[in-house]
Amino acid sequence: MPADRPEQDDQPPRVLYNYGARDAEEFHRLLAERQLVDEAELLAAGYRFLTVEHGDAEDEDQAALVKRVSDTAWATGRVRRTQGGNDYLTVYVEPPTGDQPNADEIVNQLEFLAHELNPGWWRIRRSTR
Q1: pLDDT higher for 116 or 11?
Q2: Distance between CA 53 and CA 36 in Å, rounded?
Q3: Alpha carbon of 72 to those of 1, 49, 77, 113: distances in Å?
Q4: How far apart are CA 72 and CA 68, in angstroms?
Q5: In this structure, what are the phi and psi dihedrals at residue 82, rounded to the nearest 5 degrees?
Q6: Is the pLDDT of residue 117 over 60?
Q7: In Å, how far are 55, 74, 111 from 64, measured between CA atoms?
Q8: Which residues pair with 90 in a beta bridge?
Q9: Nearest to 65 by CA among 110, 112, 107, 117
Q10: What is the pLDDT of residues 85-99, one digit of tens each?
Q11: How many distinct helices (H) and strands (E) make up the chain?
Q12: Are the beta carbons of 67 and 116 closer than 8 angstroms?
């Protein structure tokens, strides 16, 4: 081995992630912080959000309520994306172009619909998850 290069064994192992409880807590904190920054940047750009935490659908009728919110959102032509899982739906409404209603008006309509359809346990808010 060349004299100007140290032996491999002389170098401590490089640790990228420790997987300890503190590291997991720190990682979770950083993800939550990044989500807030992302949401703030999108808000400043004119995007608006609606999240419905609906829980796991127990039958087809409950699933149909969530689908109705999603379908109504897409029908506005202003939804940039939706995201969700088995227990929540988040709608991202993009800023207007031209004479379109602003994103707040679209989210107002969707929020009103979600409250009308709410079987009593949904949590509805104007933010990402």
Answers
A1: 116
A2: 18
A3: 68, 14, 9, 9
A4: 6
A5: -125, 155
A6: yes
A7: 13, 15, 17
A8: 51, 83
A9: 117
A10: 899 999 999 998 888
A11: 3, 4
A12: no
128 Cβ contact partners less than 8 Å away, ≥ 6 residues apart: 35, 38, 39, 49, 51, 90, 92
| pLDDT band (50, 70, 90) for residue 23 | confident
Question: In this structure, are residues 78 and 96 in contact, taking their beta carbons and an 8 Å threshold?
Answer: yes
Residue 21, amino acid: A
Measured CA to CA, the distance from residue 57 to residue 65 in angstroms comes to: 9
CA proximity to 117, closest of 50, 64, 79 = 64
Question: Reading across the β-sheet that carries 88-93, which strands appear in turn?
Answer: 79-84, 88-93, 48-53, 123-125
Where are the domains positioned within the chain?
47-125
Angle, helices 103-117 vs 60-75, to 10°: value is 160
Residue 16 CB-density burial (10 A; 0-12 exposed, 13-18 middle, 19+ buried): exposed
* CATH 3.30.70.600 assigned to 47-125: yes
pLDDT for 28 equals 85
